[in-house]
TrEMBL record:
Enzyme Commission code(s) on record: 2.7.7.77
This protein's name: Probable molybdenum cofactor guanylyltransferase
UniProt free text on domains: The N-terminal domain determines nucleotide recognition and specific binding, while the C-terminal domain determines the specific binding to the target protein.
Binding site for Mg(2+): D98
Cofactor(s) essential for the protein: Mg(2+)
Occurrences of domain MobA-like NTP transferase (ranges): 11-162
Binding site for GTP: L13, A14, G15, K25, D69, D98
Catalytic function, reaction form: Mo-molybdopterin + GTP + H(+) = Mo-molybdopterin guanine dinucleotide + diphosphate
Protein task: Transfers a GMP moiety from GTP to Mo-molybdopterin (Mo-MPT) cofactor (Moco or molybdenum cofactor) to form Mo-molybdopterin guanine dinucleotide (Mo-MGD) cofactor.
GO MF annotation terms: nucleotidyltransferase activity
SUPFAM superfamilies per record: Nucleotide-diphospho-sugar transferases
Similarity annotation: Belongs to the MobA family.
Amino acid sequence: MATPLSQRSLILLAGGESRRMGRNKAYLPLAGEPMAARILHRLKGVGKPLLAAGCRPFPSIPGIPVVQDHWPGCGPLAGIHAGLVYGNSELNLVVACDMPFVSRELAGFLLEKAEKIPGADALVPRAEGRIHPLFAVYRRRTFPFLEEILQENTDRSVTRFLERTDTIEVGEEEWHHLADPRLALLNMNRPGDYDQVRKRVEQEHTKNHPYPD
């Protein structure tokens, strides 16, 4: 039996420093809306949404709870921890705020696969030779172990956490029929990345709406 929507959470990580981009990526406008709102719209219905905003204020999005990190300055691992604690859902889709072409189909596939493998702490997609831990499913039961790693003054990376837990990698051969790996897991780090994405979105809009509104 599928896990009810009320028992799934969508944790959007929006607390990064965005040093390479030079401004908060969650606010970047694309197709008339901030990046954070775009991602939430594209993943509507996947789970109960909440926004992990690090340790700084975040403009409210109607109906979306905003949570602060318990471990400020500790990167995305702290955001995942905050989301797991607040969301109170067994299954949690974690998504970075710089992924403009996230796929609802891929998200649903990962969550359904996680339901079938209750022993897995996390399910992480792999594409083009690397894993993507910031578009992945995490079980809430892992948050005490997250705390242990956050308390250690060493490597607090998400990758290290995954290496020390029961993580299943999901190769693109399992889901490429649902979403284009080059787009569904694309993330933007620099202004040039944003410019390319903006041009692509504008081209798609022109193609889909050839006549002026």
